[in-house]
Amino acid sequence: MNVNSYNISIVIPIYNENDSLKILLNEINSVFKNRKKPELIFIDDGSSDGSTKTLKKIVLDNTHVKLISFKKNYGKSIALNEGFNLAKGDIVITMDGDLQDDPKEIFSLIDKLNQGYDMVSGWKKNRKDPISKRWPSKIFNFVLRIATGLKIHDFNCGLKAYKKIVVNSITLYGGLHRYIPALAGQKNFSVSEIVVNHRPRK
Fold first, then answer.
1. Is the pLDDT reported for residue 1 higher than 60?
2. pLDDT tens digits for 16-68?
3. Can you list the pairs that 54-62 forms with residues at least 24 positions away whose Cβ atoms lie under 8 Å?
4. What share of the chain is helix, strand, coil (3-state, %, to 5)?
5. Using CA atoms, how far apart are residues 45 and 202, in angstroms rounded to an integer?
6. How far apart are CA 163 and CA 153, in angstroms?
7. Core-most of 40, 50, 109, 164, by most CB within 10 Å?
8. What is the reported pTM?
9. What CA–CA distance (Å, rounded) separates 107 from 95?
10. Is the Cβ–Cβ distance between 160 and 198 less than 8 Å?
11. Phi, psi at residue 29, to the nearest 5°?
12. β-pairing, 8-14 with 91-94?
């Protein structure tokens, strides 16, 4: 299937990422240049740094952008869940708003999804985070691989692609966003992963 015919929704939780927002929007628009624009959903999770004002301006200037704005910080799981409920695309992409996830990977995720999987998770194999974050993550992922039987190296990577049926079938709250591949696997959806570019936090 030609990627130009997809209806794609991109769900991005935001918490105090004001300096990143316009850069991220430009990167996404560049990736979709000469393609059908995606439905772009920002979830402002109670930001206090000016992100809310910037996002409202972005929505006014871009008809394909939608905004869900929380009055206080509810956490990433609730933000993603609200984005999933609003998303209209046949394919849903999630990514973080801090510029560490590379929008250029979106169609690589979709290509893998097109091989017959219901969900594809990114793997930050060459992770640009301090060792204080990398080692706990390695342990977390190792334990989950053993517990679930899923051969996923990076359960908690924010960059993922889903068929709409998957996001319609899971409910997120608390810290469940860290376990999305496991939740999908429990519902007998097929899950895979690809190595994605991970960028340093600016």
1. no
2. 999 999 999 999 999 999 899 999 999 999 999 999 999 999 999 999 999 99
3. 54/18, 54/21, 54/22, 55/14, 55/21, 58/21, 58/22, 58/25, 62/25
4. 40, 20, 40
5. 20
6. 21
7. 109
8. 0.90
9. 13
10. no
11. -60, -35
12. parallel
